[in-house]
Hints:
binds S-adenosylmethionine; about 220 residues; about 20% strand; eight-stranded mixed beta sheet; methyltransferase; 8 strands; alpha/beta; S-adenosyl-L-methionine; 10 helices; Rossmann fold; globular
Amino acid sequence: MGSKNKLKRFKENETFTNVVQPAREEVLDGFEYKGRWASFFGNDNPIVLELGCGKGEYTVGLAQINPDKNHIGIDIKGARFWRGAKTALEEKLNNVAFLRSQIELVDHLFAEGEVSEIWITFPDPQIKYKRAKHRMTNPEFLERYKKILAPGGLINLKTDSEYMHGYTLGLLQGLGHEIVYANHDVYKNEGAPQEVLGIQTFYENQYLEKGKSITYIQFRIN
Length: 222
Ligand SMILES: C[S@@+](CC[C@H](N)C(=O)[O-])C[C@H]1O[C@@H](n2cnc3c(N)ncnc32)[C@H](O)[C@@H]1O
């Protein structure tokens, strides 16, 4: 995408009522919506997050299926989620928001137990050992998710990366967390839920064109 187009999207994001773009300091000093997301949406429906949402396909797709839940896509790249935010406004989906922030700050963005479910869609697997701290299912991230999830809250990981799939399964088993469901090729092996089969992301479509298998894990943190 050209820089002119990006600038246009950044400008438009500022006018979108469903986009929240706090400065890092605001988040660290006591974020206005932490513990108050119900006031943002005007109801206290369950909150579902998509972390590293890119263009926000899951945020919009799940919001269409579940109008009685509030969906928030988080990404640091505003020019990407501009797409999802615009679609949600055009379709008058008032249960959608996009939040521009670092996922590392997620426990500053939401209060304890404020989130009912998390989707992690096609994260960069960060295979190199030095990059492990950025892997979105590493133990530090799981601790952050645990803080903000309500009791029994679910985490969903959908990825093309065999590495990320295997790493996460091994970690969950080792730490004694509950693996609710796992499938290493969702379009081939029967049993994956409709939410997994019926929504495809931008990155997913690229992997599907290359004939890659798509994997899925649903789990709970103990
Ligand atoms: C590989 S892309 C996947 C995007 C989308 N989920 C999809 O499937 O098309 C990963 C996304 O995560 C975002 N991301 C990666 N690390 C992040 C972080 N620490 N905080 C916020 N966003 C992050 C990137 O900006 C990028 O949009």
